[in-house]
Each structure stands twice: as structure tokens, then as C-alpha cells.
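Morning run. Coffee first, then this:
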Amino acid sequence: MVNITSIAKAFDPRESKLNILLVAVPLTVYFNYIAHDPNISFITSMIAIMPLAFLMGKATEEIALRTSESVGGLLNATFGNAAEMILALFALYAASTTTSPETAENMIHLVQASLIGSILGNLLLVMGLSFVWGGIHHSEQKFSETQVSSNSSLLLLAVIVLIIPTVFNFTVDGTAGDEGVEKLSHAAAIILLAIYGLFLLFQLKTHSHLFATDNVHHEEPQMDQKDAIILLVLATILVSWMAEVLVHSVESAAEQYHLPYIFIGVILLPLFGNAAEHFTAVSVAAKNKMDLSFAISIGSSTQIAVFVAPLMIMVAWMWGVPLTFEFGILETIAVFLAVSIANLIAADGKSNWLEGLMLLSTYAVLGLAFFFHP
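And here it is:
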């Protein structure tokens, strides 16, 4: 039997202050469908995604508590980036159905930028804030070097996949170059998805002992499994609704607020879509649970790079949208630099607040570059 009280409690602002932002949902409905103001609905829909993504995470946690550690880890990893996947899917759908070549191109750039932004945000902003906030409470913190090694290798593989199509595009001109980049991207996407599947097998099954942490503690579920599933479905539907509004209002808002598409995709969308996950990573760092904090930050970056990005390439291929791994020179170099400095700083399995500031400084410089990008 469904417990309505339990589901309603999850939306209660007294349970989480982030739920106060749920007021943005009816505001989005008003400004989009009644006032017909896409500029305001762009802002409200982006804000609304924050608490809804948090509710998706909460429901996933409740479901994961009733499964094995391996299945629970997979659930958390998959739904941790659900908001970004939903946004990307709606943007791809808009690109596949529009009759305007300019709109289609804008949507493709938005998808590419949001994928890059999710990687940069998790690697530099979240990890940086975690190192700083944790370093303020503890002079030096440690985390699993196994996590660093395995995730770093996958991220470097993803960087290679971004660099090669970009170089290919510059060395082969014309139609042959465009067709070659598309074919190369499709093949690379299949390879990355296969590698990610094998990585999950390695992490969750064959070598799960290497990823075991000392801070694992078992919590009691607060919701029935059926209620948690209903909450997950409801939150996902609402996130999808807000994502649809956001995607259809982004062109008007970009023109009204004079914001480059690349800045909206790289900075704004990942910042709001990942806010709840960011807060979790930073708060557990203060409790000296750096294995969990590090897993959230670098784990999410790895999943975006090796699972979500190639998955979007495959979906775009099925829908006839020319989305490729040729993300552009600035975006590719930004990811390369972010992965390089993050790997270098985290290589020793230790962190402090100064290293966190270095990551945040890198994010700030890259953010300014995307803001001033024409």
C-alpha cells in the first residue's frame, strides 16, 4: 500500500531546506504557460531542477539501501547524473525535431557544453570545495589511491577520445572530414560504453574489495520500497518537465541576458543540475569521509565522460543528429587541463585546503574563458 504521508514528507521544507526551492516549479508553470515569458521561465526551471534532483537522489538512496552493495553503487552512479542526462536528451530531441538549422546547431552545442561542464564542475569545483572545506576542519585528509588510479585512467581515455576527433577534424577538410569525425565518434562511443561496463564489473564485482572503505555504515531505510520508487518516478517526471521548459526557453534567455551558449552549458546547467550532489560531497568531506567525497566528485566525472557522453552520441546517431566528440578546441583543452591538474593533485591520495584552492582557481579561470567566449 502506498504511504502518501511518507512521499509528501520528502517534499517538506522542514526535511531539507533545499525543498524551499520547489516553489520554482509552480512559478515555472505560471511564467511558461500563462505569462508566456521564456526568459523568466528559463531561470525558474533551472532553479526547480536543483531540489528535484535532490529528491531523485534521496529516492535512489532509499532503494539502494534494500539492495546489495554492488547494485546500490550502480543505482547511485546511474541516477546521480540523471538530471544532466535528461537535459541532454531533451536538447537532442529538440535538435532532431526542429526545422531551423540554427536551432539544431545551438542544441547540439548546448549538449556538448553541458557534458564538458559536468566533467569540469565535478573535477574542479566539487573536488576543490571538498578539499577546502575538509581541509579547514582537518589539516590533512586521505582517500583511496585505488579510486584515484582507476578513475584517472578512465578519464585520460576519455580525454584521448575528445582530442583525436578534434585533431582529425583539423587534418581532414570538407565533407570527408565531417563524415570521418561522425564515424570515428560512433565507434569511440561503442568502445567507451564497453569499457565502462567492464569497469563496473571490476569495481562492483571482481575487485570490489579494492574499493571498500573504512567509513561504510549501514543506515535504516526511512521509506517503503514502493514509496521510494513512486518518489523516484514522480521526481523524474518533474525534472523532465522542467528540462523541457528550460531547453525551449534557452535560446530566448541567451539572447535576452547576453549569455554565450557555451557558458550556459558549461557553467550554469551543471551547477544547478548537480547542486544537491555537490552539497553532499562537501558536507561529508567536513566529516573526514574523503573516500565518499572523492567517489562522488571523480566518480561522477568518470561516468559523464565514459558513460553519459558516449550514450548521448549513440542516441543522437539513432535520431539522426550529427553530435560528435569534436567538442571544440577550448572545450577539449579545458578538459585536458582539468583532468591533468586533478590527477596530479590527487595522485598521492592526500588532500589539504591549499590543493582545493588550486582546483577552484583553475575552475574560475576556465569559467571566465567560457563567459567571455563570443
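The first strand starts at residue 141 and ends at 142. Good start to the day.
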